[in-house]
């Protein structure tokens, strides 16, 4: 693997498609790990769409948080199934017990997430960072991360509502400074459309 590809691999971003709460106010922040789909069988299992890069961390007796109210719920069992997981919870022993859980999100506390190697970041750590060019121009804030086949694309939204799409490559993304809430970038010709 070339040194350029190694750097790109180190800068990989781990996704969590949903966050709630606020780091700045000291409230717990929750990260979505799955969305409950339909009941499966008669013993209280549900099909779950996986929204985490770490599904192996979902184990029996682990506490998760259910829905927007973040109701604590304990995993009774979990196993692979097709493109998702089959999951069951303590206190929900039959199909009729879990019917009303369909469509609910499952969360973990952000402070319970696995540590990433240096140079890797979770989406929620990057969203909201000020985006500044290497010649000190402010472009706006990182508003969205689009996942594509080749590399992620960062959608930067300016104060006036304008948007810029930046490929998340080593040539464009120069530095990520979480402490100062800043993303330093280099604009390749044509990225601003002019």
Quickly describe the structure:
The protein has 194 residues and is mainly β. Helix content is 8%, strand content 42%. It folds into 2 domains: 19-112, Elongation Factor Tu (Ef-tu), domain 3; 118-185, PRC-barrel domain (SH3 type barrels).
Order of helices and strands: HEEEEEEEHEEHEEEEEE
pLDDT averaged over residues: 82
Please give the number of β-strands: 15
Count of distinct structural domains: 2
Shape call? elongated
Largest sheet: 6 strands, antiparallel, barrel
Strand ordering within the main sheet: 3-4-7-6-5-8
Helix content: under 10%
**CATH-defined superfamily of the largest domain:** RimM
Rg calc:
20 Å
Query: Can you tell me the CATH architecture of the largest domain?
Result: Beta Barrel
Mind explaining what this structure looks like?
- Helices cover 8% and strands 42% of the residues.
- It has 194 residues and is mainly beta.
- The chain has 2 domains: 19-112, Elongation Factor Tu (Ef-tu), domain 3 (Beta Barrel); 118-185, SH3 type barrels (Roll), CATH 2.30.30.
- The strands form 3 sheets. The protein has a 6-stranded antiparallel β-barrel with strand order 3-4-7-6-5-8.
What is the topology?
Elements lengths: L2 H8 L2 E2 L4 E2 L9 E11 L4 E6 L12 E4 L4 E11 L2 E6 L5 H4 L6 E5 L11 E2 H4 L3 E4 L4 E9 L6 E5 L5 E5 L5 E5 L4 E4 L9
Parallel strand pairs: 1-9, 10-15
Antiparallel strand pairs: 2-3, 3-4, 3-8, 4-7, 5-6, 5-8, 6-7, 10-11, 11-12, 12-13, 14-15
């Amino acid at each position: 693997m070339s040194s350029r590809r190694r750097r790109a691999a180190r800068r990989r971003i781990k996704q969590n498609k949903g966050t709630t709460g606020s780091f700045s106010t000291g409230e717990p922040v929750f990260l979505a790990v799955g969305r409950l789909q339909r009941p499966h069988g008669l013993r209280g299992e549900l099909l779950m769409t996986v929204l985490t890069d770490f599904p192996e961390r979902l184990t029996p007796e682990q506490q998760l948080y259910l829905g927007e109210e973040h109701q604590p719920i304990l995993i009774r069992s979990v196993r692979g199934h097709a493109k998702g997981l089959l999951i069951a919870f303590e206190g929900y022993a039959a199909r009729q017990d879990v019917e009303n859980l369909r469509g609910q999100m499952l969360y973990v506390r952000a402070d319970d997430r696995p540590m990433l190697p240096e140079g890797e970041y979770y989406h929620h750590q990057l969203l909201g960072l000020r985006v500044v060019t290497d010649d000190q121009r402010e472009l706006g804030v990182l508003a969205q991360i689009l996942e594509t086949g080749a590399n992620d694309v960062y959608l930067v939204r300016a104060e006036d509502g304008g948007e810029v799409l930046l490929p998340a490559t080593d040539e464009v993304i120069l530095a990520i400074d979480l402490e100062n809430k800043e993303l330093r970038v280099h604009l390749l010709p044509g990225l601003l459309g002019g």
